[in-house]
Structures are given as structure tokens and as C-alpha cells.
Write a structure and sequence with these properties.
The chain is α/β, with parallel strands linked by helices. It has 11 helices and 11 strands. Strands 1, 2, 3, 4, 5, 7, 9, 10 and 11 form a 9-stranded mixed sheet that branches. It starts with a helix and ends with a helix.
């Protein structure tokens, strides 16, 4: 009897250990985000938009075949229609206006990713900021965000997400002065892709313990001390809480190792119950 009791306790301990390995915070999911100083949507830069969406949804450069069926809600600010480059890259986009109702529909429609279009209108900025809690709910539920430039509006344009640094609004009016980082190359941001269009913003104070930089300014003559500053950056498996971004979230779709732990926990629990009945 003591042996059985001891075995049962061991089985229960195994169940507890497996649950602790899972974090036992299963409802805490994590989202992905990509932010760029380019107005990639207005220039309809398909390769650029594909790279940012690929990063949020796959973590690396993907293919048109893999993108098939992945849905993207596009919140248009200066545009009245979805950029054709999103669809030509293989994604399935749906247009929403930057009104309160449009933003709400984009965030609650079950889309794989939400892209916020470039813009600088006070009305759109106010509507986006008012939806901050809805953005957090979507993000923490495993959603992916692609955020285009503020086009000179300033840091307050990004008030719908927690602070990630300070947006520096520059006056660049030429292309060819940007460079991808090694991480940028891995998601498909090559030199021709980043140098195709002008940009409106680069960024200071990015927390690189949370965010990965994909593109930087690349002209000492034009940028001076600001040469090498981030132009595009992002992160995966973050959460929003406590007034900021938090790391170490749980992916919304369990990975194979997680599923194995779940199976071990269930088997251990079943064994413990059988031993108790004897």
C-alpha cells in the first residue's frame, strides 16, 4: 500500500512538474510586431510589405504559396483602398477605414495580421489611440501588427501601442540611403527593396533587448551623427501589459515540444488516478 501511495505521489509530482514547465499560464499568449519609417503601403512596395508580414507571421522570409490563405486587415489612413502589393505577394487583404468602426472591425475580425497604413491626420491618430485597449487584446491573443510611418506626425501617432522609443521625424526626400541589417536580409529586406522609396522616420532609443533592428540609415553625408539609426524593427512573442511591451510570452499556437509536455501531463494524471483507485 505504501509503495502504491508513493508511486501515486510520484506520478502527481510529474504532472505538476509538466504543468510548471508549461508555465501554467496558458492563457497568456504573445503577439508579433513590425514597425517601419517607410510608407511602404503608399508606395505599394510589395517586396517590403511581404518582408514585414512574413516576419510577423512566419519569423523569416516566406513564399507566395505559404502566404496563401493568410488574411491581412489593412487600416487605410491616406489610402481609400488596399495596396495591390499585399495581394500580389500572396496575402489575402481586406480594407478598413481609419474610423472607430473600421479599426474595431479590423481588430475583431479574426485576421492573421493587421497593417496600419501610413498617415498623419489628427482624426486617424485619435481613433487609433482610442483603440489602444483593442490593439492590446488583439496582440495578446496572438495577433500580428505591421505599422507604417507616422509621416511626420510624431511619436504620439503610435499611442495605440506602448512606447518603443522616440520617433525622429526627418526630412529625407530621396531614396538610396538605407541599408538592411543581417536580420533584415533574413526576412527579405534586400538593398534594392529598402532603397526603392523615401522614408519619413527613423527611430531613437529602441529597446534592443526586446526588438530586432532590420534596417538602418546609411549615409554619413546625409545623416551625420544619426547615421546607422533604426528605420525598421520588430519583435515576436511579446505581450502588452503594465503600460509597456513585455517579453517571454507564450506563442498562441503550442509548439510540438509543448504538445509533448501536455501529453506527458495527461498520461501522468491518468496514472495517478488509477493508482488511487486500487
Amino acid at each position: 500500500m505504501r509503495l502504491r501511495s508513493s508511486t501515486a505521489r510520484t506520478a502527481r509530482a510529474g504532472v505538476i512538474a509538466a504543468m510548471l514547465a508549461l508555465g501554467f499560464a496558458f492563457p497568456v499568449h504573445a503577439g508579433n510586431i513590425f514597425i517601419t519609417g517607410h510608407d511602404s503601403d503608399e508606395h505599394n512596395n510589395s517586396a517590403y510589405m511581404a518582408a514585414g508580414l512574413d516576419y510577423t507571421l512566419f519569423g523569416t522570409a516566406s513564399t507566395a504559396a505559404a502566404r496563401a490563405g493568410k488574411s491581412v486587415a489593412y487600416i487605410g489612413v491616406n489610402r481609400s483602398s488596399t495596396p495591390s502589393g499585399i495581394a500580389s505577394a500572396g496575402y489575402s487583404p481586406t480594407f478598413f477605414s481609419a474610423t472607430a468602426a473600421g479599426i474595431g472591425g479590423a481588430l475583431s475580425g479574426g485576421f492573421d495580421a493587421v497593417m496600419v497604413g501610413s498617415g498623419s491626420t489628427p482624426a486617424a491618430a485619435a481613433n487609433l489611440a482610442s483603440a489602444a485597449s483593442a490593439f492590446a487584446t488583439y496582440f495578446n491573443g496572438g495577433g500580428s501588427l505591421y505599422v507604417n510611418t507616422d509621416e511626420g506626425f510624431g511619436q504620439s501617432w503610435y499611442d495605440f501601442v506602448p512606447s518603443f522609443g522616440t520617433a525622429v521625424n526627418n526630412t529625407i526626400s530621396v531614396s538610396g540611403v538605407f541599408a538592411p541589417t543581417a536580420a533584415g536580409l533574413a526576412i527579405g529586406l534586400t538593398d534594392p527593396v529598402v532603397d526603392r522609396d523615401i522614408t519619413h522616420s527613423f527611430y531613437d532609443g529602441i529597446d534592443t533587448s526586446l526588438f530586432t533592428v532590420f534596417e538602418v540609415t546609411d549615409s554619413l553625408a546625409r545623416f551625420g551623427a544619426d547615421n546607422g539609426k533604426p528605420v525598421a524593427f520588430g519583435a515576436r512573442n511579446l505581450g502588452i501589459g503594465g503600460g509597456g511591451f513585455t517579453g517571454g510570452g507564450t506563442p498562441s499556437v503550442p509548439e510540438p515540444a509543448t504538445l509533448v509536455l501536455i501529453g506527458v501531463a495527461l498520461l501522468g494524471w491518468t496514472a495517478a488516478r488509477r493508482l488511487r483507485r486500487r
